[in-house]
């Protein structure tokens, strides 16, 4: 297949590199005017220290999107999704794959591309860019795929085969909403709390009061899923069923298990919100993570105060460096601010 991967960051490079390894014709589309490292190749380093230098086409901006596409993969942060989608205006009928975390990306893209096929995807393979521009595939996760808009059954099968040929586990799901909400459960783990406190996930889960915050935000998300009639599904390399069972155990039993397992999750990479705040980002994806849980809960007529408060606090810390510094390394302050929400939950 001829595949454009829109977004040449860590996720785009790992996904595009995997597909190129599997024999697909891939073009990585970065920002207009960006100077790609080692143009024409991709240094991909996968699990087990496997390294491949892959010939791959690179381009920048709308002028670099080839006209003869079979599919385009949107591998950008959620706040860049509209701009990435607009790069495909000259190819209105090309089906699109959404890789964004959180809830609502598919509806957002479908509104801008009426009539085009749409595949929802959930990536559990952790990705990072190294100091020399190399793409690092950090764990043995995989990708989930589901039809969101249009008759894309054949494309789903071809994409799953293409990822498997490149060494990535892939599975097809009948319900895109159940798949995306299941991935959201994993995204919530140690994300907002780690960002606010600038602590590792293992330290979050080793702290009894922080663990209770984590447990409550997960149970709120599960309550929303139940209200929506959605059942959690096991994603490649990320079976959330065990996570749910552990959260439902008494804390004395569940916390040691989760502290040990989740401390080494994400291939050793820090959670996305923590990385964003550390870098001094002016915007994050928390609106589509904890914020999505709070919004869906309100629409369903149930409460999700912990998620709502975490969303608000991350937004405050993003906008105000002093607020960010006030929370850093101070679990007592976060627990104090969330005490009211925990009492309601």
Description:
It is a single chain. The chain has 345 residues and is of the alpha/beta class. It has helices at 10-21, 81-86, 105-112, 153-165, 176-188, 192-197, 201-206, 208-228, 240-248, 251-262, 272-278, 290-300, 305-319, 321-327, 331-344, and strands spanning 2-6, 25-30, 41-46, 50-55, 57-60, 71-74, 96-98, 118-123, 127-129, 135-137, 142-149, 169-173, 234-235, 238-239. An eight-stranded mixed beta sheet has the order 5-2-1-6-7-8-11-12, sandwiched between helices. Helix 8 packs parallel to helix 15 (331-344).
Q: Mind telling me the CATH class of the largest domain?
A: Alpha Beta
Sheet with the most strands, sense and barrel status: 8 strands, mixed
Tally of contiguous helical segments:
15
| Overall form | globular
Annotation keywords:
345 residues; alpha/beta; Rossmann fold; N-(1-d-carboxylethyl)-l-norvaline Dehydrogenase, domain 2; 2 domains; eight-stranded mixed beta sheet; four-stranded mixed beta sheet; 15 helices; 14 strands; 46% helix
What topology emerges from the helices and strands here?
Layout: E1 2-6, H1 10-21, E2 25-30, E3 41-46, E4 50-55, E5 57-60, E6 71-74, H2 81-86, E7 96-98, H3 105-112, E8 118-123, E9 127-129, E10 135-137, E11 142-149, H4 153-165, E12 169-173, H5 176-188, H6 192-197, H7 201-206, H8 208-228, E13 234-235, E14 238-239, H9 240-248, H10 251-262, H11 272-278, H12 290-300, H13 305-319, H14 321-327, H15 331-344
Parallel strand pairs: 1-2, 1-6, 2-5, 3-10, 6-7, 7-8, 11-12
Antiparallel strand pairs: 3-4, 8-11, 9-10, 13-14
Helix pairs in contact: 5-8, 8-12, 8-15, 9-10, 12-13, 13-14, 13-15
């Amino acid at each position: 297949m001829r595949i454009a991967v829109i977004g040449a960051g860590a996720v785009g490079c790992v996904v595009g590199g995997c597909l190129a390894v599997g024999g697909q014709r891939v073009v990585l589309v970065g920002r207009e005017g960006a100077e790609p490292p080692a143009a024409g190749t991709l240094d991909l380093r996968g699990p087990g220290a496997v390294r491949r230098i892959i010939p791959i086409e690179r381009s920048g901006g709308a002028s670099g999107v080839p006209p003869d596409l079979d599919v385009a993969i949107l591998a950008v942060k959620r706040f860049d999704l509209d701009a990435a989608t607009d790069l495909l205006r000259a190819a209105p009928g090309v089906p699109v794959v959404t890789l964004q975390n959180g809830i609502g990306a598919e509806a957002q893209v479908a509104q801008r591309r009426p009539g085009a096929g749409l595949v929802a995807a959930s990536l559990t393979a952790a990705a990072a860019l190294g100091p020399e521009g190399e793409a690092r595939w950090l764990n043995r996760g995989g990708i989930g795929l589901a039809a969101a808009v249009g008759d894309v059954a054949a494309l789903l099968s071809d994409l799953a085969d293409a990822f498997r040929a490149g060494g990535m586990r892939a599975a097809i799901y009948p319900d895109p909403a159940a798949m995306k909400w299941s991935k959201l459960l994993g995204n919530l783990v140690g994300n907002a709390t780690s960002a606010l406190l600038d602590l590792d996930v293992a330290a979050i889960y080793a702290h009894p009061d922080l663990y209770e915050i984590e447990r409550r935000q997960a149970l709120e998300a599960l309550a929303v899923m139940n209200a929506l009639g959605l059942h959690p599904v096991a994603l490649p390399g990320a079976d959330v069923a065990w996570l749910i069972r552990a959260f439902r155990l008494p804390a004395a039993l569940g916390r040691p298990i989760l502290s040990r397992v989740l401390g080494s999750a994400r291939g050793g990479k820090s959670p996305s919100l923590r990385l964003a705040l550390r870098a001094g980002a002016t915007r994050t994806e928390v609106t589509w993570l904890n914020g999505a849980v709070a919004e869906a809960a309100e629409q369903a007529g149930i409460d999700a105060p912990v998620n709502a408060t975490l969303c608000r606090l991350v937004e405050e810390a993003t906008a105000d460096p002093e607020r960010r510094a006030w929370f850093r390394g101070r679990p007592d302050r976060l627990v104090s601010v969330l005490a009211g929400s925990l009492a309601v939950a």
